[in-house]
Amino acid sequence: MNKQKKQQDEKPRVFSGVQPTGILHIGNYIGALKVWVENQDLYDNIFCIVDLHAITIPEAINPKDLKQQVREVAAMYLACGIDPKKSTIFVQSEVPSHSELAWILNCVTPISWLEKMTQYKSKSGKQKTVNAGLLNYPVLMAADILLYETDIVPVGEDQKQHVELSRDIARRFNSLFGTTLKIPKSMIRKSGARIMGLDNPLQKMSKSAAIKKNDHAIMLTDSPEIIRKKISKAVTDANGEISFRKASPGVKNLLTIHETFSGKPTLEIEEYFKGKGYGFLKKEVAEVVINEIRPIQEKYFQILNDKPYLEKVLEQGKSRALGLSNIVLRNVKNQIGLS
Ligand code: TYM
Asked: What is the per-residue pLDDT for 121?
């Protein structure tokens, strides 16, 4: 056993993923990728690009673009600081155990559990025809997590309910067929787990809203000029209060973005902005964001153009994911009586 593999095997395991449904925004970065990178040395990390989840809303995906979008997310993982020596990066559809376990778990998951999911209710409300994939989305997510004997799932707040469901599905399988699946826990940051839209601070910042409305989100590939412009237009209020507790949702969102990017304590931030106007706050927020994402953007375009490197990372990731996931899938099939 080589040294790197031995070290990986001894650490608790992290699993998480992002859908390749477009360029990532700072909500994805703060809620997920930044947390992954900050904790990378503590865990054996597995990060997936969940393209099978992306096709649950077929209208949002152009088949001609999907493969490129997968590569873009992989390049963004690496540019943000995910190190392939410490973390496994792979594409969900290249590891068939995910679909296979998802089918088995579908057979132990009551439909009523799925119909209660907040994300299903909001997404299905916007569709003319609701496909079964959208309802079963969290079962595939449970399969992703449970296949790797995951201990910890670092996600934004919107995914907490899905991780809870993965725990319920695992417990149900274990009680029906004997203890087989490890029960995972979510890891959600205290501040910044739900970054809101700049144009509407009552709505979560999302990739789908960003496609429809230009000033909704800061994308990780936005230029400094665009970032300054979008933040200068962010919705605030008329009361002029710059405080984490008393501010309106729009101002609180800007303060939270500042906090997560600058890493400064809230009291220090409040002191700094005391007596200042929203114009100043917006300028400062734009600068902390630009400072952190500028080097990420440079690496991102460099990596995206280095196809052989990207392919090598994904190939290595796939090989490890195939090996690990097959062990759990074999146990599950054995317990349930499948050959
Ligand atoms: P996706 O692509 O929608 O989101 C990727 C990650 O970004 C987080 N996130 C946010 N965090 C803070 N503020 C926001 N406005 C914001 N918007 C998104 C999400 O919580 C997520 O962590 N279902 C997953 C993908 C997935 C997955 C998994 C995750 C599939 N299988 C297994 C963990 C484990 C999702 O929401 O992707």
From this structure: 96
Q: What is the largest distance, in Å, between two alpha-carbon atoms of the chain?
A: 70
Residue-range domain boundaries for the chain? 2-193+307-336, 207-300
pTM, to two decimals:
0.96
In the reported structure, the alpha carbon of residue 254 is separated from the centroid of ligand 1 by a whole-number distance in angstroms of: 21
Other CB atoms closer than 10 Å to residue 192's CB: what's the count? 22
156 Cα to the center of ligand 1, angstroms: 6
CATH topology of domain 2-193+307-336: Rossmann fold (3.40.50)
Query: What would the mean pLDDT of 217-223 be, rounded to a whole number?
Result: 98
**Homologous superfamily of the 207-300 domain (CATH):** Tyrosyl-Transfer RNA Synthetase (1.10.240.10)
Looking at every residue in the chain, the average pLDDT score rounds to 96
Could you give the percent of the chain with pLDDT greater than 90? 92
Digit-coded pLDDT (tens) for 260-313: 999 999 999 999 999 999 999 999 999 999 999 999 999 999 999 999 999 999
Question: What separation in Å is there between the alpha carbon of 77 and the centre of ligand 1?
Answer: 13
What is the strand order of the sheet 87-91 is part of? 87-91, 44-49, 13-18, 152-154, 185-187
List ligand 1's pocket residues with C-beta within 6 A: 15-19, 27-28, 30-32, 50, 53, 141, 144-145, 153, 155-156, 158-159, 162, 193-195, 204-206
Decide if 212 is catalytic: no
Cα dihedral value 217, 160, 144, 331, nearest 10? 180
- Which candidate in 34, 86, 204, 252 is catalytic? 204
Helices (H) and strands (E) in the chain, counts: 16, 5
Mutation pick for ligand 1 pocket among 13, 24, 28 (CB with most ligand atoms within 8 Å): 28
Residue 170 CA to residue 153 CA, distance in Å, equals 14
Catalytic residue among 207, 230, 252, 282: 207
How many alpha carbons fall within 13 Å on the CB side of residue 287?
6
Q: Let me know if 3 is a catalytic residue.
A: no
CB distance 95 to 320 below 8 Å: no
